[in-house]
């Protein structure tokens, strides 16, 4: 059965927001789209009906993207968040990855990538695109202090390292199981054990761990 998602978008630029609504409704996988002018309006919508995905502009009046995402992550942990931004600000992206945001897209992103990101955050919990990869590589290269302690790769078994790499390649649990000849249940257990070992709570943390420890170059 084909999946269909409910998507809300918050952006204070009316023409852009309405164009995004029309674009989203053109995607086969989108069942419903609602829009809001700022974070406060978005949270009001979510009181009555919770979406699968919230697409949030970073810079908005009344309540900006960062504050809005913080509330969503606390109150609605099952909602996947895609951040829209005009600039590839490393500081904002690293900070919001630490918060637990699921994807970052520039506002000039192609429609195909937007649709891909929506599927990725729902099905795989994170969209690991070139923007995120470049920010994480730069952060590691400049040897900045990580936002969480760095753990040794040696703490993971070879199988666990392999699973982390496949997660970073955006494979689903089912795809990882098929590739490694493991059941989905076994892969889920491995992933949960890995997260516990390295002290992260989501796929975002796994991706950051992979960069900071050199599993991904």
From TrEMBL:
CDD domains the UniProt entry points to: LuxR_C_like, REC_NarL-like
Domain HTH luxR-type: 149-214
Source species, domain of life: Bacteria
Keyword flag GTP-binding: no
Cross-referenced SUPFAM superfamilies: C-terminal effector domain of the bipartite response regulators, CheY-like
Modified positions (4-aspartylphosphate) in chain numbering: 57
Coiled-coil features, chain-numbered ranges: none
Keyword field contains Phosphoprotein: yes
Record InterPro entries: CheY-like_superfamily (IPR011006), NreC/VraR/RcsB-like_REC (IPR058245), Sig_transdc_resp-reg_C-effctor (IPR016032), Sig_transdc_resp-reg_receiver (IPR001789), Tscrpt_reg_LuxR_C (IPR000792), WalR-like (IPR039420)
Keywords attached to this entry: DNA-binding, Phosphoprotein
Response regulatory domain boundaries: 6-122
Protein name: Response regulator transcription factor
């Amino acid at each position: 059965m084909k999946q269909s998602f409910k998507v809300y978008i918050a952006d204070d630029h009316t023409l852009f927001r309405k164009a995004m609504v029309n674009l989203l409704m053109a995607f086969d996988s989108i069942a419903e789209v609602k829009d809001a002018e700022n974070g406060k309006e978005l949270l009001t919508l979510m009181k009555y009906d919770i979406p699968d995905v919230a697409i949030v502009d970073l810079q908005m009046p009344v309540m900006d993207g960062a504050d809005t995402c913080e509330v969503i992550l606390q109150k609605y942990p099952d909602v996947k968040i895609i951040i829209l931004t005009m600039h590839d600000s490393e500081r904002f992206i690293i900070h919001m990855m630490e918060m637990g945001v699921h994807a970052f897209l520039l506002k000039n992103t192609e429609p195909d990538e937007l649709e891909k990101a929506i599927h990725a955050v729902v099905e795989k919990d994170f969209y690991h695109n070139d923007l995120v990869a470049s920010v994480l590589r730069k952060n590691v290269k400049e040897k900045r202090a990580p936002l969480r302690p760095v753990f040794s790769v040696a703490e993971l078994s070879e199988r666990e390292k392999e699973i982390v790499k496949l997660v970073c390649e955006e494979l689903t649990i089912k795809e990882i199981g098929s590739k490694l000849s493991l059941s989905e249940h076994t892969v889920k257990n491995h992933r949960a054990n890995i997260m516990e070992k390295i002290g992260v709570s989501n796929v975002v943390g796994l991706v950051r761990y992979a960069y900071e420890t050199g599993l991904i170059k």
